[in-house]
Amino acid sequence: MSCFQITSLGAYLLGALDPAERSVFERHLNTCHVCREELIRLAPLPGLLGQVNLADLELPFDDPDPYDNQPLPPITALRPVPDPEPRKSRRTLLLVGAGVLVALLVAAGLFIPRMVEGDPVRVADPSTSAPPPPTWSAMDGKTGVGASVAMVSHGWGTEVRLRLKDVKPGLRCMVVLYAKSGTREVGGWWGTSDTDGEVIPGSSSFAVDGIDHMEVVADQQVLVTLRPPG
Ligand SMILES: [Zn+2]
Predict the structure, then answer these.
(1) Ligand 1 centroid, distance to 9 Cα (angstroms)
(2) Ligand 1 mean position, distance from CA 11 (Å)
(3) Residues annotated as region Disordered (predicted)?
């Protein structure tokens, strides 16, 4: 099953929709599991979710009867007075953005299938002077959930590899990164399985040393908070 509105998803993630288009698409997102699953699938892509307001992702989902999924009016119909020139250049930009997104998707599909513990893990080359990626771990006394995260620095920000322990299967989780500057980003979404120690990939536009702490959240509840040691 597909949805014709899914073409707006790339623009939405890239922050290229204007406020009216954005709110139309967000309303649609709230009632369409096709677009929502695609949104979740795109979540680990670098920096993209930095564009999405966390509050939007926390909205409760209430899908109506799947057969009652009425198409919304085309976004173009809602646009008030056209201003051809800037619009044109933005559309071009948007198309470029969509192309980049497709390329990222292809890369993501190839490179982010989940790794299970026991898979070969990149080992730091002792001949380089770069410090090993920082790893934080924590266990929450209340929820009983343990977590560890390894952070790998990239030009675009930070790749995170999260491992959870003793988490209930079937939860929809996200990792929220808090920067020292006070801003926050969603680093990734996933559904939990009963495979303990599964590596969950995520990413953030924050630099490694700019990250203050992270929270693993499910159903608006913090399962565990990760902070630097010491
Ligand atoms: Zn849809």
Answers:
(1) 9
(2) 14
(3) 63-86
Residues 6+ apart with CB under 8 A from 91: none
Ligand 1 mean position, distance from CA 105 (Å) = 18
Give the pLDDT of the chain (230 residues) as one tens digit per residue: 578 888 888 777 777 788 888 889 889 988 998 888 888 777 555 455 444 555 555 545 555 544 444 555 555 545 555 555 554 444 444 555 555 555 555 444 443 333 333 444 444 455 555 567 789 999 999 999 999 999 988 888 898 989 998 888 888 888 999 999 999 988 888 888 877 777 888 888 999 999 999 999 998 899 999 999 87
Sheet holding 211-218, edge to edge: 184-191, 172-179, 211-218, 221-226
Cα of 180 to ligand 1 centre, how many Å? 36
Q: Which CATH number fits domain 135-226: 1.10.150, 2.60.120, 2.60.40, 2.30.38?
A: 2.60.40
- Please report which residue ranges of 112-155 form alpha helices under DSSP H: none
Dist. CA 121 → ligand 1 center (Å): 37
Q: How far is the CA of 226 from the centre of ligand 1 (A)?
A: 34
